Amino acid sequence: MNRLTAPFIAIAMLALPAHAQVAPSAPALNLEQNMLLRCSAAFALGGHLQQAGSPQAAGWPPLAVGGREFFVRSSARLMTEAQLSREQIAALMMDAAQDLGQGDQLAKIMPVCLQVAGLR
After folding, report:
1. How many CB atoms lie within 10 A of CB 39?
2. Which of 19, 29, 68, 96 supports an S-S bond with 41, CB 3.0-4.6 Å?
3. 108 in a structural domain
4. Average pLDDT of each block of 10 consecutive residues along the chain (120 residues)?
């Protein structure tokens, strides 16, 4: 899944506002910011699975629009609040995606993320 995840997240990162690039050092994220990051990664992975026709993603609402909007808004918020650059968010997103790609982690977090994003 990692081989398939990288291009999808890279494409999604292009949607981030260019004015949101800030400081190079990444401060520690608080719980809410970490959840925004992990849910953004979950939606990117989930959207990719839905596009590929995966049975794992069949029970989730369509993530192409709502998931992407959450991803963009969350990334902009992280850039502002945590002073993260696009590159830092992309690296953190890749780490989160790799973690969520292990076992059934994506299936476990998706219900919480759908609720947080109001996508149910």
Report:
1. 26
2. 96
3. yes
4. 51 47 62 96 95 94 93 95 93 95 95 94
